[in-house]
Design brief:
There is one protein chain. By secondary structure, this protein is of the alpha/beta class. It folds into two domains: 194 residues, Medium-chain alcohol dehydrogenases, catalytic domain (Quinone Oxidoreductase, Chain A, domain 1); 140 residues, 3-Layer(aba) Sandwich (Rossmann fold), CATH 3.40.50. Helix 3 packs across helix 4 and helix 3 packs across helix 9. 49% of the residues are buried.
Length: 369
């Protein structure tokens, strides 16, 4: 998926004797428990292109996209270059490209980045200005790093794909969130509840049910049991909208059953088998994909909307209207802690987000950022 080698995209002076950085390379074909799955490497510092920010990485978070990309990478014996993963970052601007106007060195920023460029599992990373924003002033780096990718995904899913109003014009409408305790679900519950929606989230374990309630779910139903009778018992035999942050294939028939005529469904997990769209035809229901990387990957003219969304999320956090979702914190950022984070994520029982902070020996780690 582009930029698979270690070298950051943009310009780079490989002969600069003073500019190197630590980075953690990922290899495919190995379980995350294998000592060879991640390796500490030293690379030349990336040099910012005209529209880039060069950001010193303070904290990162892991997401399912990291484990999926790693699973598809060539193995160590293939001769192919490994890849820098990581698309959730909080850091400090060190340098700005000539065309940058919104930031200056020293600004504390957050972003999810661009999957076609090297990720943020490095001491420094390049990010295009339009998809970045200043991070919440009331969060530390680790807490801030938990929010960009899931925040953007949840916002785009609810307010762009499902066309719900973020400020309450759709208040009272019902929304079923499949996978409420995960990273995206945790943010979507908060945003939907703030928008005045009746939020029904799925969870099965006592701790995941409690987490969804803490995030603000109106109701929590057990996804290990049939959903239609549970929703009917709540007075919602059908719902106005469904956000599937879990398994598209597994829930496809029941989503078609539960969606209200002329309702809308959004999903973020690719299907493994063909989906029968005819199940939605009689209800004139719409189905949407949400992929947070669409705008930066295809360099859409409106990709600056992602920077604007991050600004709005930062304001909500600062106003106390949204909370961070960092639940597991590891330090420092290293091959061992990244392997641990990937293992936890692949276990499928995490709540909220896993974050990693600081580089060994760095001032950020010593200060706790």
């Amino acid at each position: 998926m582009g930029a698979s080698a270690l070298e950051p995209s943009g310009t780079m002076d490989t002969n600069d004797p003073g500019g190197t950085m630590k980075a953690i390379a990922a290899f495919g074909g190995l379980p995350c428990s294998d000592p060879g799955a991640f390796a500490l490497v030293e690379l030349p510092d990336p040099q910012a292109g005209p529209h880039d920010l060069l950001v010193r990485v303070e904290a990162v978070a892991v997401n399912p996209v990291d484990t999926k990309v790693r699973a598809g990478l060539p193995g160590p014996g293939s001769g192919a270059a490994p890849r820098l993963l990581g698309w959730d970052c909080a850091g400090v601007v060190e340098a700005c490209g000539a065309a940058v106007t919104r930031f200056t060195p020293g600004d504390r920023v957050w972003f999810a980045g661009d999957i076609t460029r090297p990720g943020c599992n490095a001491e420094r990373v390049l990010v295009e200005e339009p998809i970045c924003s200043r991070r919440p002033a009331n969060l530390g780096a680790a807490e801030a790093a938990a929010l960009p990718l899931t925040g953007l995904t949840a916002w785009e899913a609810l307010f762009e794909r499902l066309s719900l109003d973020p400020e309450g014009a759709d208040g009272g409408r019902s929304l079923l969130i499949l996978g409420g305790a995960g990273g995206v679900g945790s943010i979507a519950i908060q945003l939907a509840r703030r928008a005045g929606l009746v939020v029904i989230a799925t969870a099965s374990r006592p701790e995941s049910r409690a987490w969804c309630e803490q995030m603000g779910a109106s109701h929590v139903v057990d996804h290990s049991q049939p959903l239609p009778p549970q929703l009917a018992a709540l007075g919602h035999p059908e719902v106005d909208a469904i956000a599937n942050f879990s398994d598209t294939d597994a829930y496809w028939p029941v989503m078609a059953q539960l969606i209200r005529p002329q309702g809308a469904i959004v999903a973020i997990v690719g299907n493994r088998s063909p989906l029968d769209l005819n199940l939605l035809k009689a209800k004139s229901a719409s189905f949407h994909w949400e992929f947070m990387f669409t705008r930066p990957q295809f360099r859409t003219p409106d990709r600056g909307e992602q920077g604007a969304i991050l600004e709005r999320l930062a304001a909500l956090v600062e106003a106390g209207e949204m909370r961070h979702t960092a639940t597991t914190r590891l330090a420092p950022i290293s091959p061992a802690t990244l392997a641990q984070a990937h293992g936890l994520l692949e276990g499928g029982r995490t709540l909220g987000k896993i974050v990693l902070e600081g580089w060994e020996g760095s001032a950020a780690l010593a200060a706790g950022s």
